[in-house]
Every structure is written in C-alpha cells, then in structure tokens.
Amino acid sequence: MYENYYGFTEKPFQLSPDPRFFFASDHHQRALSYLQYGLDQGEGFIVITGPIGTGKTTIARNLLSQLGDESIVAAQLVTTKLDPQELLALVVSEFNIQSKGDSKADLLQAIEQFLIQLNKQGKRALLIVDEAQNLPSETVEELRMLSNFQLENKPLIQSFLLGQEELKPIIQAPNMEQFRQRIIASAHLKPLSVAEVKEYIIHRIHQAGCEKDELFSENAFELIHEKTLGVPRKINIFVDRLLLFGFLEELDVINSETIMTVAEEMEIELTGSLNSSELTSQEPNQKTSQQVVVNSTENVEHIKEVLRDVEEILESSIKQKVKMARYVDKLLKHKSKLYAEEQIDK
C-alpha cells in the first residue's frame, strides 16, 4: 500500500520473522552468540527465553540462515502441549525419518538409526524447539533422553529451546536437575530501549530500500517506545499502521501528532491493539444479576456508557472506511497514471 509512496522496495515491518531484517540489539546479539557457541560445542542445551514478541523466533531463523556448515542437519519445531511420544513423532516428521511403526519404541529406534546414519556421513542433527514453554516437564525430559544418543562419547543430536518466560519455572523444577546440568548457556531477551527502538526502525526502513532518515521526527521514537514498550512485534504492528496512516494523509514526516492519533485509533480496535490491560469478564455475576433493577439510575447510566462506547467504535469504523475509500481512489489514480505512461511509451 504505502511502499511506493515512501520509496520502499518491500514491506519493512512485516510480522513474519525474516533473517534479513534481524536487528542485533545487545541482548539479541548475546543470545545469538550463545546459540553459535552452542553449535561450536556440539553438545548440551541452549535455552533462550523472553516475553512475547521480543524476537526469539527471528533469532532462530537468523541462525538457520547463517548455517554454512553442511555437516549440520537442522529442523525447527513449533510446539503445542505435546506428550513425549507426540514429540518424538514430530521429530520423526520434521527430519523426514522413516519409522516402522507409531509406538514409542519404533520412533526411538528410527531416530537412533537416522542419527547414526548422519554420523557415518560426518553430520549431526540440530533440533530447534520454538514455543518450548508449551511442553510439559516430562516432554522436556524426553528431549534430554534424546541427547543420550551418542557414539564414541559424542552426542548425535543437539537441542536449542526457545520459549516465553513460563519456560523458566518448568526447567527450574526440582525434578529437572538432570536437564539443568545439560544446559551450557542461557539468555533472556528484553524489550528494546528508546535508543534501540530508533536504531531498529531505521535499520528496517533501510533494509526495505528507503534511505529517508527524516521519515520520523526526532521525538517520534521515544513516543513509539512508550506506546509499544519496546517490544519488536508491537513496534512492527504500530509502525506499519503509522506508515499506512501517513500514506493516506499524504504525510512526508511521521511526528508525535500522527503517533497519538494512530494510537488512539488502535486502542479501540481488535487488530494490533497496543492496550495491554486485561479484559474484564463479560459474564454476569449470578448473585448480582438476580438483583438488577431495569429502571435503576445506576443501570441507566451503565447503558448510556455502553452506548457512548458503541458510538465511538462506529465513528472510528466510519473514519476507517472513509480513509480506505480515499486509499482505493488514490490507488486507482496511480494505476491510471502508470497505464497512461505505458501507452505513451508504446
């Protein structure tokens, strides 16, 4: 939508992880260094934790994109709540291993034969487990058991665990002592600072082919940090919306006024909401619902408040439709201009 207007060759703030847009903040670079160190060691577990949206998956994708070592055969799992046997079945599937059956014994035997065959070829397996906080402790323990596959005291498979903060108590549980002893390095990702938010945004717009460092006013970055708390995924959502708004309004610079306007719009929308407060339950309390008086002053005021909220939402929706209509009109004019130029060239 806004790419041509601002001179981008591609969308700079897409949500899907892309190694080309990897930004090495201090914490992210340290985590990546730990992963690379773990690869060099060829054994043990590396654990990377961090809040939602801080870039754990992007780090994994960046690591895989940099793997120039053909001796490493890598697979990445994005887990749900798997039991140990389901985990083994997923490992078999991701490594394209042929198994004689679906029993746990069959799966383990197939994995072991696959790892031994890799070893004979001078290769080893790397398993990256994303969203590892979803795994029950017994499934994490199954990963430790896989690390017991060895030949001549050398592990045949190595695992990296990437997960949200909920992964920490799982690993720190008393029954996980043997697993903890296999961890050779760990890192915890943090949100970006104000300075890093500025570097992050400029890095991504440059990576997308735009060299306009003045696209954002100087005070914009601190305000963007305030609205997104420095979380990369929230920054992507918010800045993408800022650029769309700037395109629709034909703005050359994204300033504080623009940021506040877009932030207010997003506070009452479902997509890309920046409001981190928890939603209160909409279910009526059984005790109080029996005592509601329809014509009570309190209830009337509540209804008025609800109607005001609905009015705000409808007004915002109308504004969005008007903006989208303007965008379509602008897009059609742009297409017509290109078509006319093509006809002149012919």
Please, could you describe this protein's structure?
The chain folds into two domains: 26-188, P-loop containing nucleotide triphosphate hydrolases (Rossmann fold); 193-275 and 295-338, no CATH class. It is elongated, with a radius of gyration of 26 Å. By secondary structure, the chain is an alpha/beta fold. It has a five-stranded parallel sheet with strand order 2-3-6-1-7, with helices on both faces. It has a two-stranded antiparallel ribbon with strand order 4-5. It has helices spanning 3-6, 26-41, 56-66, 84-94, 104-120, 137-146, 167-172, 177-180, 194-207, 220-228, 232-248, 256-267, 286-289, 297-345, and strands at 45-49, 72-78, 124-130, 150-151, 154-155, 157-163, 183-188. The model is unreliable at 277-300 (pLDDT under 50).
Throw out a few tags for this protein.
346 residues, alpha/beta, Rossmann fold, five-stranded parallel sheet, two-stranded antiparallel sheet, 14 helices, 7 strands, elongated
